[in-house]
Amino acid sequence: MKRGTFQLMKSVNKSIILNKIRTSEPISRAQIAKDTSVSAPTVSSIVKELIEQGLVRESALGHSSGGRKPTLLHINTNSLYVIGVDAGPESVECILTDLTGRIYERTSEVLKRPITKEKFISVLKENIQTLIESSNSKQDKIIGIGIAMHGVVDVEKGISLVAPILNLRNIPIKEMLEAEFNLTVKVENDARAMALGESWFGGHEAAESMVAVNIGRGVGAGVVLKGKLYHGSQGIAGELGHMTIDINGEVCECGNRGCLQTLVSGESIAARARNQITDDTLSIKSGVDIFELAQGGNKECVGLLNETGDIIGIGLTNLIHLLNPRRIVLGGGVMNSEKFLMPNILDTIQKRVLVDEAKHTDVVITKLGSDATLLGAVSLLLIELFEPISIG
Fold first, then answer.
1. For residues 346 and 41, what is the distance between their CA atoms, to the nearest angstrom?
2. Do residues 229 and 195 lie in contact, with contact meaning Cβ atoms separated by under 8 Å?
3. Is 79 within 8 Å of 46 (Cβ atoms)?
4. pLDDT, the chain, mean
5. Structure-model confidence comparison of residues 214 and 9, the more confident one
6. Is 388 helix (H, G, I), strand (E, B) or coil?
7. Cβ–Cβ under 8 Å, residues 54 and 114
8. Which CATH architecture fits 3-75?
9. Cα→Cα distances 63→39, 69, 76, 178, Å
10. What is the pTM of this model?
11. How many angstroms separate the CA atoms of 65 and 67, rounded?
12. Which of 52, 82, 240, 325 has a CA that sits 20 to 30 A from residue 247's CA?
């Protein structure tokens, strides 16, 4: 679906009605008018248009307290499709989904470093093109591409300003991909995209304020307030990994010392293990090795992961004191060691938060698994379709 077509589909009233159907289906036209304060004639007109576009379908008649039974409305979930991309720093992964996040196709490619901006864009294009070609009859129904990008992103311009692990700057992702595919392209920081994906697909509807924290090759967070991402004045809200924990600590990739990321990322955990564990016979190359050794009963590795849980707990306590979210969702490769991390994370929060009420902050592991960021990239387009008005 070409960019212009997607733009024409959007209007404030149309998005209000679409979102009402999405969140309350099955629902009648009369109930939509009552709940949204959009006039009944306008609701009927827009619903007629949405049905003609294939976005909404009608179902069997509903119950009536008198008079004609109302026809109920649903989102036609497989009428449109979205491409979601998790772009770096280790690999590029792409999925094609319907409006519910159901995955139909996948591609994946490991990024070889060092890498240039041109090569990085080339990898994105090749994988997206492969996905489009494999989608067959769905090609004309694709509404756009969501990119979850590692590092600092200019969301409005769709530019990757700083991708520190890839050692790249100023990548015009939106411009290059829209020119290539003639589809709407949205670019967001990967941790913030993950947070939005959790908000849409993670079953957190009751949590008005939520923070998703991605702990893997780096550490990032996304803040969702009333279903909307919070970016901050300069677009760097959520850089939890660069919170200073030890002013005399290791130098971070950002250039500062003692960032949380230097202590709890996968590579940092492995580096600490190589310095602290006394058994010279152990081969430790990554955080995965630490987890496997801990699973096998190695007490030093168990202790190291417990200590890492304490440090993550300190970072999350600071987060609670700053934002006081209703829920914190943890994801990323490091959290595969949940068994050894979570008890210490929760215990540290319980011991350190300022007030007893804050002890009840929900801290949970993502239910979306390794697809959380990919589904977040998909949600960048869904929020445009269903909720075009966002906050800063």
1. 52
2. yes
3. no
4. 88
5. 214
6. coil
7. no
8. Orthogonal Bundle (1.10)
9. 22, 6, 21, 46
10. 0.82
11. 7
12. 325
